Amino acid sequence: MSSVLRVQNVTFVRGGRRILKGIDWEVKSGQHWCVLGPNGCGKTSLISLITGYEPATSGDIQIGEDQFGNSDWREVRKRVGLVTNTLTTFIEPGEPVINVIASGREAKLNLWQDPPAAWQRQAATLLKATGSQHLRKSLWGTLSQGEKQKVLICRALMAKFNVLILDEPCAGLDPVAREHFLNWMAEISSWPEAPSLVMVTHHVEEILPCLTHVLMLKDGNIHAEGTKDEVLTSAALSEIYGAPVSLTAKNGRYALMVL
Ligand SMILES: Nc1ncnc2c1ncn2[C@@H]1O[C@H](COP(=O)(O)OP(=O)(O)OP(=O)(O)O)[C@@H](O)[C@H]1O
Fold first, then answer.
1. Is ipTM beyond 0.90?
2. In a structure prediction context, what are the per-residue pLDDT tens digits for the chain, which is 259 residues long?
3. How far does the centroid of ligand 1 lie from the alpha carbon of residue 20, in Å?
């Protein structure tokens, strides 16, 4: 299996604090990962480094054959799809929804001008495919949290990505919208040319059967990584959260109880 994403001995220091302390992680084609860890352990920071929004303090990050520093990172970034709430704060409230989606094509946040007609058509098609065509003429600032999430999903689909990173993608979604979103995710994973999915979440209920591997972070370090069956245990979850928890599995889905 070829390497889709490789993170080697990566550290991230900000404000004099070592936020990531030497991360080694590899995602291979055909694998889909879940990233788990308590608040503040460094999940979003790791994602920011992989997507090129922040530079690592040391270490190497490779997407496919291309390495940060040795390749044009603007080109590399186009192969990483990102759905994150952090993005929502950078998008201008007056940006038309179609432009927000089309901006995914160039991995830019605000276009400041209308995108080419072909991109607008692609954006409208994606919006329709997610059942959100009624948002076509809306402005970003007027959308609900769930609507913003759907628009960001469409944005990620504009690019030909090798890896699709979903940072707490279900945050703010109602239970039914969440299940629909997870089904959509499972559908993406079944595409013949599916990108590798990397989903950051706090909720084991969102770990679908299509997610094959788990990365557990604690205090800027890797606590465990490997296949879901190896890593996802009550003992490991109790260790990262620093409290006893009990994990149960039923029909390929999980539930967690804090004891
Ligand atoms: N630019 C920065 N300067 C200083 N501290 C930072 C910076 N970015 C992140 N941090 C700190 O690093 C730690 C890790 O933050 P990060 O957002 O990566 O955690 P997280 O695991 O995603 O947390 P959560 O689950 O709460 O979203 C936090 O304590 C945060 O305050």
1. yes
2. 799 999 999 999 999 999 999 999 999 999 999 999 999 999 999 998 998 888 899 999 999 888 776 777 777 777 788 888 877 888 999 999 999 999 888 766 666 678 899 999 999 988 887 778 899 999 999 998 778 888 887 888 888 788 989 888 888 788 887 888 788 778 778 877 778 999 999 999 999 999 999 999 999 999 999 999 999 999 999 999 999 999 999 999 999 999 9
3. 10
Distance CA(174)–CA(78), nearest Å, equals: 30
Distance, in Å, from the CA atom of 118 to the CA atom of 56, rounded to the nearest integer, reads 36
Specify the ligand 1 atom closest to the Cα of 47.
18
Domain ranges of the chain: 3-79+160-258, 95-159
Question: What is the CATH code of the structural domain delimited by 3-79+160-258?
Answer: 3.40.50.300
Maximum CA pair distance of the chain?
Answer: 55
Dig out the tokens for 113 from the structure: 């001008």
CB 128 near ligand 1, within 6 Å: no
